[in-house]
Sequence to fold (297 residues):
Amino acid sequence: MTPARRPTDRMPPDRMPPDWPFRDKTRRVTSRPHDWCVVDAGDGPPLLLLHGAGGAGHSFRNLIPFLLPRYRVIVPDLPGQGFTRSGARSRYGIDAMAEDTATLCQTLDIAPHAIIGHSAGAALALRLADLLHPKGIVGINAALGAFDGAAGVMFPLLARVLAVTPFIPHVVAKLWGNPATVTKLLTATGSALDAAGQAQYLTLVREPTHVDGTLGMMAQWRLEDLMRQLPTIATPTLLIASAGDLAVPARISRDAARHMPAANYAELPDHGHLVHEEAAEDVAALILPFLAALRAS
Fold:
């Protein structure tokens, strides 16, 4: 059963649209240093679902129904993004975010059976391996590679400049917060979302606090230590990639799996970076047997 709400739990924020996915299963949880927005639904072994940079827990809306019959799902919006209010803008790097996510799990009194992460959330899931000790990890189009060439230097530098520039999040939210621009941004990932999915991302892009949290995460994100640690991660891991991903090429997950002692790689022939949103049934068909094997072992 889902535990009774704690005194620190509150209902979703007023600014969350009434039709937001799983709004009725969403609660606010105070877990230092952040005021988290968390979907908590279902019964069974708990699964922790972690979204990528620029998204929110809503990105798992189509995958969650395939998990609920057997598992309890815990889906937080990451600090500063979605509807989670950040209590420390200096803690958007992967190590600090892993520590704060582990603290959230302690506050919720859960030990995740497995962690499922998309994009940067997959990197965070791997970083949590030695903090939460899950039985398994699933990465969906895991963002585990560095940008090539000059972009590897300039993009993080640009993100750092934007993240500390006053009013930039409000300017970005105003300039990009229109349907045409959001459609272009989503198309650039190789994914085709339905109208409801596009509208949800438009809601996020129009929120200056979400833009600020996304820029802050990009500015502070460093994967060098995690990449060096990949050969030491013995947690059973399934890395899923999609051949049409224009944001994180499938070779990133394929190469990472080669360096991990307990990793398997699976590739879907179609779809883009947001494959878990546009083809949730195909993704679930790979994840569910992996999770069942973990329970059997």
Notes: The first helix runs from residue 64 to 67. Residues 119 and 143 are 5 Å apart (CA to CA). Strands lie at 26-31, 34-41, 46-50, 72-76, 114-118, 136-140, 237-242, 263-268.
